[in-house]
Design brief:
Layout (H helix, E strand, L loop, with lengths): L10 E11 L5 E11 L8 E9 L5
Antiparallel strand pairs: 1-2, 2-3
């Protein structure tokens, strides 16, 4: 992943944006981030994700 987690000695974060269309034809945008805990071997020990829907239509 370009720009993500370059130092595998501790923790890092990565932001993302998902876009798509519902079956009803409405646009959907979801943005979020992943938080990673990386031990010295560089393998992911823990990953937490947080997200929110951007511009959610009422109702």
């Amino acid at each position: 992943m370009p720009g993500a987690c370059r130092d595998p000695s501790s923790r890092c974060a990565r932001g993302w944006l998902l876009t798509g269309t519902t079956t009803a034809g409405e646009a959907v945008r979801v943005r979020g981030c992943g938080l990673f805990d990386l031990p010295p071997d560089g393998r992911i020990r823990r990953k937490d994700s947080y997200w929110e829907i951007v511009g959610c239509p009422p109702g």
